[in-house]
Every structure is written in structure tokens, then in C-alpha cells.
């Protein structure tokens, strides 16, 4: 590193490194994070997203009652957005040289959020709210863990985190509009 370039690795070294580790794809020698750990965390998040896709979809088909149409549509919209998150996370795992884990075996265990079917419309909304809050907490922790070491993975998880916060907010509004959980039991 030359004196007049205190912050940047010189371009020749960068180019040499890029050639030496060409098989590493997007992961260069400047990658600071614990790559295996980041891939593992992303795979846990991937499992969470898949479980959320399935739970929201189950709820879409099972939603019943006079107010169910709008709520069911919201469930489906969320399910599709969770699928989009799953795809983004899987793509990033591959960029990091890992393999996205789509195996159905152990999916529920790998996931942070749970698959709860619920019976009433309010039950379903509540379960989705709980799952979103779990995703929010764990994704925030992942963002903090990654820190400045892998800005791309961090930004991805930050952008997904923001959407999960919107999801939670929407479930809270739906719960306020459909407060029949206690009456059903
Ligand atoms: Fe998501
Ligand atoms: Fe969500």
C-alpha cells in the first residue's frame, strides 16, 4: 500500500488477488466476515422465509368469515413477498460460495419463526404477527453481527428487515380490525 493511498489496497495487488481466487466469484480477499458463519445465518433466514411463505399460504386458503376476503388477500401478498425474500437470500448465499438449503427435512427446526396454523381469522393474524416479530428480532441481530464486514449481505438483510416491520404493522392493524380470538375459545 503506497503512502498517498492510505485507505485503498493498490490496484495491482487487487488485480492479482482477483485472478488468484477467481473460483471464489464475488468473494474477494478483502472479504472480512466469517463466510461460513454468514452463510449459515443466511440459511437460517432462508428457512424462516420459506416457513413464512407456507404459513401465510395456508392462512390464505383457510381464512373464513365475513371479513376474511381482504385479510386473506393480505396473507397471499405477504406469502409472495416472503418468497421474494427467500430468493434474494438464496442468491446471496450462492454469491458467497455457499449452497442454499431448501431441504424440507429440518426446515421447521432451522427456521426462527414457527409454522402455526391457527383456527380463527384472529388466531391466524396473531400467529403471523408473532412470526414477524421473531423475524424482526433475529434479522436485526444478523445485521448487527455482520456489521461492516459484509456490506452487501447486511444491506440485503436490512432491506428485508424493513419489509418485515411493515408486515408486522399490517398484522397489528388487521388484528385491531378482527378481534375475535378470545370469543372463539
Ligand atoms: Fe420475509
Ligand atoms: Fe414478513
From TrEMBL:
Pfam families: Ferritin (PF00210)
Alphabetized GO MF terms: ferric iron binding; ferroxidase activity; heme binding
Every Ferritin-like diiron domain range: 32-182
Single GO cellular component term: cytosol
Gene3D superfamilies: 1.20.1260.10
InterPro entries referenced in this protein's UniProt entry, alphabetically: Dps-like, Ferritin-like, Ferritin-like_diiron, Ferritin-like_SF, Ferritin_DPS_dom
Gene Ontology process terms (BP): intracellular iron ion homeostasis
Residues annotated for Fe cation binding in this entry: 49, 85, 132, 164, 167
Keyword list, A-Z: Iron, Iron storage, Metal-binding
Name recorded for this polypeptide: Bacterioferritin
Organism: Cupriavidus agavae
Amino acid at each position: 500500500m503506497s503512502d498517498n493511498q492510505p485507505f485503498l489496497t493498490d490496484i495491482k495487488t487487487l488485480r492479482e488477488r482477483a485472478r488468484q481466487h477467481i473460483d471464489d466469484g464475488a468473494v474477494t480477499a478483502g472479504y472480512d466476515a466469517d463466510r461460513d458463519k454468514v452463510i449459515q445465518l443466511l440459511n437460517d433466514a432462508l428457512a424462516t422465509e420459506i416457513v413464512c411463505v407456507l404459513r401465510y399460504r395456508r392462512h390464505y386458503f383457510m381464512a373464513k368469515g365475513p371479513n376474511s376476503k381482504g385479510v386473506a388477500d393480505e396473507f397471499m401478498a405477504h406469502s409472495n413477498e416472503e418468497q421474494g425474500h427467500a430468493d434474494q437470500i438464496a442468491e446471496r448465499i450462492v454469491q458467497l460460495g455457499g449452497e442454499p438449503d431448501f431441504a424440507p427435512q429440518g426446515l421447521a427446526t432451522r427456521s426462527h419463526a414457527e409454522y402455526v396454523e391457527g383456527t380463527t381469522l384472529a388466531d391466524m393474524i396473531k400467529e403471523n404477527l408473532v412470526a414477524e416479530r421473531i423475524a424482526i428480532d433475529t434479522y436485526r441481530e444478523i445485521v448487527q453481527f455482520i456489521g461492516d464486514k459484509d456490506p452487501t449481505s447486511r444491506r440485503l438483510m436490512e432491506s428485508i428487515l424493513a419489509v418485515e416491520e411493515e408486515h408486522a404493522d399490517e398484522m397489528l392493524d388487521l388484528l385491531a380490525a378482527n378481534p375475535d380470538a378470545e370469543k372463539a375459545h
